[in-house]
Amino acid sequence: MTKRIYFLVHGRVQGVNFRRFTQSRAAEYNVTGWCRNTENEKVEGEAQGDESSIGKFLKAIDDGPRHARVVKLDHEHRDPVDGESSFEVRR
After folding, report:
1. pTM above the 0.85 mark?
2. Does the active-site annotation cover 19?
3. CATH number of the domain enclosing 46
């Protein structure tokens, strides 16, 4: 079953390659969606995939890349989107 989530990552997540890391993990786990920096120094996005892939993806971004420091990861369910084929980094 396809699952879609909205996520918001708190901590030191800007200026540490977090968005590219997130995109890389999405590709690794066959997850589609998007992410971007927010004005208040967080990273937000949406991710879609099967339940197992979303679980692995969330664990990976909760750990973050080496120079990041994730202090909190919020996520909530969203309705799946048709026609999405990749995970993009938005500006």
Report:
1. yes
2. yes
3. 3.30.70.100
Spatial neighbors of 89 by CB under 8 A, at least 6 apart, are: 19, 20, 22, 23, 34, 35, 36
Could you give the number of structural domains in the chain?
1
pLDDT digits (tens, 9 = 90+) for 7-64: 999 999 999 999 999 999 999 999 999 999 999 999 999 999 999 999 999 999 999 9
Catalytic residue among 17, 19, 36, 78: 19
Annotated catalytic residue: which of 12, 17, 36, 37? 37
Q: Would you state the structure tokens that stand for residue 9, as one six-digit string?
A: 């990552």
Provide the residue range defining the domain that includes 41.
2-80
37 a catalytic residue: yes
